[in-house]
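Contributing new records

If you add data, match the layout below exactly. Sequence lines come first and carry their own label; structure lines follow with theirs. Keep one chain per record. Anything else will be rejected by the validation script.
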Amino acid sequence: MPRVVATGLQFPEGPIAMPDGSVVLVEIRRQTLTRVGTDGRAEVIAHLGGGPNGAAIGPDGLCYVCNNGGFRWHSAGGLTLPGGQGDDYTGGRIERVDLATGRVERLYDAVDGFPLRGPNDIVFDAHGGFYFTDLGKGRSRDLDRGGVYYGRADGGGVKKVLYHLMTPNGVGLSPDGSTLYVAETETARLWAWKIRAPGEVDPTPADSPNGGRMLWASPTFVRYDSLAVEAGGNVCVATLHDAGVTVISPAGGRVEFVPVSSDDFLVTNLCFGGPDMRRAYVTCSGSGKLVELDWARPGLKLLQQR
């Protein structure tokens, strides 16, 4: 059963399990990077503006944040709900935050001269670079096409990996770093590509228009959000509307579905932590909660956990 770690958060996302037992996450509506202590109290690390979304700790110990530029907001049924591009939209970017001082630095806001629209999720590889998705932004009558990009943590460059995806959201790597995973929100599909070099994949157009191998597509209406990977290779995708986590095999096919919330359909992200990596921290964003639950299998250790 899920246990509540913290309440009163303003649309939490991007959780990171830290070595000291705390969880660093973003509050998208509050526009902050926040630390939730082991006592459940939340402390703001930095005010970023826009819409801080996915987050990850880099090899330098700094926190890298995907900022989507800002949403419109409304409420329904006691939940906080994001809409399309906010009236105060400030543009998409990748930001770097010093957890000790709260200093914020803008790292990238364009690729090949094209502005980032709605960066969403991020994962570091063993080479010190990071993959991130740009879901794009929606407006009243049109929607951006999304993409996947690769950036250097030292600010030395960013490049396109994949483009023309449909709302790419969660991003992750296989335990051996050889496979890139991307979950699409509106199609509720999980895709995989073989990596041939840092920031480069081997697309196979015969498999699909985007060159990826489809591991699973939900047969019912749900929407996929961010993801985490287990140590054994399963991909765990936060699932909107069904309010839980869909576990998908790297060979293809659904392994199981883990329900998380009975009162919040916006289960948006998860990470693994704890001494044996069998604790899942999950964001229930609409109700502003961070919950934890025991996981059947250990999660994959990320860079800051090794």
